[in-house]
Amino acid sequence: MAQIRRSPGVESRATSNTPPSVQAQYSAGNDTARAALLRMRRIMLRTVTEPCGCRWACRCPKPLTVNQIDAWFKAAAYLLDQGVVPQLPVEVLRALWLRGGSDRELAGELYAATWAVVT
Is the pLDDT of residue 20 over 90? Predict the structure, then answer.
């Protein structure tokens, strides 16, 4: 165990080889939390912002592609022909409705059949 040198006349103050700036930075518990927050802020400022505004991995829902909407339409039409009423996600129903024509008719029919379930 290393011997602690004490200053003459001051018994509670211990000296060490650590610079005073480092001692001051890590002496209090809340200073370490503050230092961690500052490090995190510096990291966030260095990261690239996604077009949607997300800083880290983007978790925003991606818009449906035309091929996906076509696939949902064909699957729902097939199930209706078989006598089964499919329950489509609201995003798909909206996309079908916005396309108009037969897609809008199918979306309206599916919504009317499952209006209590779709939220």
Answer: no
Nearest-angstrom CA–CA distance, 90 and 64: 12
Q: Is 39 helix (H, G, I), strand (E, B) or coil?
A: helix
DSSP 117: T
Gyration radius of the chain over CA positions: 32
**41-97 tens-digit pLDDT:** 888 777 777 777 777 677 788 889 999 999 999 999 999 999 999 999 989 999 999
* Euclidean distance between CA atoms 78 and 12, whole angstroms: 84
- Rounded CA-CA distance 10/6 in Å is 7
Task: Calculate ∠ Cα 66-69-73, nearest 5°.
Answer: 135
**What is the DSSP-derived secondary structure letter of residue 78?**
H
Neighbours of 85 (CB within 10 A): 14
CA distances from 37 to 28, 34, 46, 54, 99 (A): 15, 5, 14, 19, 47
Looking at the chain, the number of H-run helices and the number of E-run strands are: 5, 0
